[in-house]
Amino acid sequence: MADVPTADQLRRAPKVLLHDHLDGGLRPETVAELAEQTGYDALPTSDVDGVRAWFAAATEAGSLEEYLERFVHTVGVMQTADAISRVAAECAEDLAADGVVYAEVRYAPELSTQRGLALEEVVEAMLDGFARGAARAREAGNRIRIGVLLCAMRQQSRALEIAELTVKYRDAGVVGFDIAGPEAGFPPTRSLDAFEYLRRENAHFTIHAGEGFGLPSIWEAIQWCGAARLGHGVRIVDDIEFAADGTARLGRLASFVRDRRIPLEMCPCSNVHTGTVPSVAEHPIALLRRLNFRVTVNTDNRLMSQTSMSNEFRELVDTFGYSLDDLQWFTVNAMKSAFIPFDQRLALINEVIKPGYAALRSEALFGPVSAHTPALA
Ligand SMILES: O=c1[nH]cnc2c1ncn2[C@H]1C[C@H](O)[C@@H](CO)O1
Ligand SMILES: [Zn+2]
């Protein structure tokens, strides 16, 4: 049996993150400080531990709608360009310190216009912050590349406007588009004009689907809207039947998703917290991995779900006994599915990801380099 990866190996393993919300990953200290600095007086408490605990209560939400209520205060402190830029810079540093080498971080600019910021100013503040954070991470010895996804909120009606913003900033670091927010009652076709526009512009997009609602949402996202990836996509298992001997029979939609290699941006911990699945052990990720769907592993909201990429990997290793080979498989899947140009994806796979995992595997043979290298005479 392969060795169980250690916590340190999980952190050092090169990781790729396709689904992470900027307003779901603030440091609790930063929420408290920004509230003070920007005069935001609606926080339930100003004490950092209290702030941390208030957000952590999202892990008990049990429904997507209740889980989403926790975003009111992160969005509340993200209403100035400086605040947004700081949050983005810290996001880049935190991900890089956790061993993430490529990330696509998403946010809905329309949420940061409460005090008069223009949509463009929000996007520029994000891009500025990510560039500063990646530079600081590099100085600390951690390399990361970040692409931005712009979300439109599905309960609002600004999807076309946000899609246009995505195209406007695509050469400046915005790599794609998404719709987020409550899924039940807000089907993807509600934003069909935005998706048709993006397709005509040869732009990339993913859609949150199959999390708070089932197969019809996934079907619309793919067959009506043309999503290149699915945010979560967990409910695709509803289109898979199991015979008494355990063999699986895929329905037409599940077959289509697998045959077309449509990436599933799975977020195990978040899915437990929103009540999408009862526990990590009952998460369909293991089944979908076995059936060779293009599964990826993601954090969704590091603050609300008290998680990180290393932690998601740890949960999967502990629950399903995954080895470094499995973790490399998830990581290569994610890198193949990114929205940056193909040659760059390939370079990251061949020059960063595969050598990174090979180095970790070799430790199992020779031990960590530093511990066993004899001093040179
Ligand atoms: O898991 C999610 N499903 C749907 N919407 C989500 C999820 N996590 C965060 N959001 C929402 C809340 C944020 O304010 C918004 C933009 O990041 O996206
Ligand atoms: Zn999400």
Automatic annotation (TrEMBL):
Cofactor: Zn(2+)
Coiled coil regions, renumbered to chain: none
Reaction catalyzed: adenosine + H2O + H(+) = inosine + NH4(+); 2'-deoxyadenosine + H2O + H(+) = 2'-deoxyinosine + NH4(+)
Listed EC numbers: 3.5.4.4
Keywords for this protein: Hydrolase, Metal-binding, Nucleotide metabolism, Zinc
Catalytic residues of the enzyme: E211
GO molecular function terms attached to this record: 2'-deoxyadenosine deaminase activity; adenosine deaminase activity; zinc ion binding
HAMAP family found in the cross-reference section: A_deaminase
InterPro entries for the chain: A_deaminase, A_deaminase_dom, Ado/ade_deaminase, Metal_Hydrolase
Gene3D superfamilies, alphabetized: Metal-dependent hydrolases
Enzyme class: hydrolase
Residues annotated to bind substrate: H21, D23, G181
Designated name of the protein: Adenosine deaminase
Site (Important for catalytic activity): H232
Annotated Zn(2+) binding sites: H19, H21, H208, D300
The UniProt record lists the keyword Zinc: yes
Organism field: Saccharopolyspora hirsuta
Cofactor note: Binds 1 zinc ion per subunit.
